[in-house]
Amino acid sequence: MPRNHSHTFGQDVRRAAETRTQVVIVLTFVTMVGEIAAGLAFGSMALLADGLHMASHATALTISALAYAYARRHASNPTFSFGTGKVNALGGFTGAVLLATFAVIMAWESVQRLIEPVTIAYDQAIFVAVLGLVVNGASVLILNVREHTHDEGGRHRSHDHNLRSAYLHVMADALTSVLAIVALLSAKYAGAVWVDPLVGIVGAVLVARWSIGLLRSTSDVLLDRQAPDHLLEEITQAVEAKGSCRVVELHVWSIGSGSYSAIIGLEDSDPKMPDEYRLRVPEDLRLDHVTIEVCPPTE
């Protein structure tokens, strides 16, 4: 019979990121309603695009919040072999898909407005765009995410893809707000009405690039891609540091934010108990679930 041990890997603890995400959802939803209404009323594509982005981001942020709650509540569910850490990666992947979808919608609407310009009420549209930028800036500060994190030894840590998805969504909102303001000012004072839909296209391209990056990183987790080479090298060196053992097979994959699982196959002319090899792996590498297989050297 297998030994009884926990597979929660910290997923059962409520994270500060979950609360911050919920606060940003409320701010985003309120501003979204105002910007979409103002964009339609005042005829600004840039402002309407900003509101549409907020609609997509409000949805994505809600998915992120649900992913946190689901992962926490089901962390001890034994049907999840390695806990619920990948639920957050799945939330991030879904957010990336939404980000890409609304980038396409934004580009399409902008092209239509470029071909058929509409009348814009500049003063009102600029006011709402500035208000949206203030909310977006506050949301960025609330989430307070760094793109990459490292431990004290300078080694890279896998980040919270769910939180990164939320962060990129509010950053996209901030970007489209800035572009909307620039476009509206250019149209009002320089008569360059074409700038308004043009910045919608530029914003769509930038947001699409962010979504592609997030799709790649979350896909790596969901598809159990092998851990970075430097981590594999550190594990190999640590295990082989003593005695005559040699690592002949090594599989390391992410099971959550900053948490890895590993299967290590060893050959040793003087085999020892698996726990002895397991203790050689430094704790700061965050291998939370390690399986050791030991066999004598092959001839």
Keywords for this structure?
single chain; alpha+beta; 299 residues; 8 helices; Alpha-lytic protease prodomain-like; three-stranded mixed sheet; Alpha-Beta Plaits
Describe the structure.
There is one protein chain. The chain is of the alpha+beta class. It has 2 domains: 207 residues, Up-down Bundle (Alpha-lytic protease prodomain-like); 67 residues, Cation efflux protein, cytoplasmic domain (Alpha-Beta Plaits). Helix content is 62%, strand content 12%. The chain has 8 helices and 6 strands. A 3-stranded mixed sheet has the order 4-5-6. It has a two-stranded antiparallel ribbon with strand order 2-3. Strand 4 and strand 5 form a beta hairpin. Helix 1 packs antiparallel against helix 4, helix 2 runs antiparallel to helix 3 and helix 3 runs parallel beside helix 5. It is elongated. The relative contact order is 0.14. About 4% of the residues have low confidence.
Provide the domain count.
Answer: 2
- For the record, the CATH class of the largest domain is Mainly Alpha
Mean pLDDT: 77
Number of helical runs?
A: 8
Largest sheet: 3 strands, mixed
Widest sheet, order of strands: 4-5-6
Q: Which runs of at least 5 residues are low in confidence (pLDDT < 50)? A: 147-158
Spell out the blueprint of helices and strands.
Blueprint: H1 16-42, H2 45-73, E1 81-84, H3 85-115, H4 122-143, E2 149-150, E3 156-157, H5 161-190, H6 195-222, H7 229-240, E4 246-256, E5 259-267, H8 274-278, E6 287-295
Parallel strand pairs: 5-6
Antiparallel strand pairs: 2-3, 4-5
